[in-house]
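Listing S7. Sequence submitted for prediction.
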Amino acid sequence: MNKESIKKVNVLGVPISAVTLEQAVNIMEQWIKQRDQHYICVAPAYSAVLCQTDPTIKEIFKNAGMVTPDGMGLVWAMRALGHSQKERIYGPDLMLKFSEVAAKKGTLISLIVAKMQCLIN
């Protein structure tokens, strides 16, 4: 599955992926099987606001393989825009679920965790 095939909802110009936790993990598994390289942004509502004033951060979100809604504000915005997003995808829950799946399948994973400033400098 390529990143273009993931349904997205435009929230203040930020493409939020309309996925559930299970779907997000399945997409990540598919990327690994296909040896696709993507990064995922776990986005609280503040991220969409931050993108309004920082074009560099907005580009980071636009180029992500997936941008998960890690805030109820984004989930509510998606619903208001006509998509029936059912759940918030809390970042630690996503990592825990994906780590469990990867461990069962013997998949090695690497994580890059940084403050936004580290990523843009």
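Caption to Listing S7: primary sequence and predicted structure tokens for the chain studied. The longest helix spans residues 91-105. The mean pLDDT is 89.
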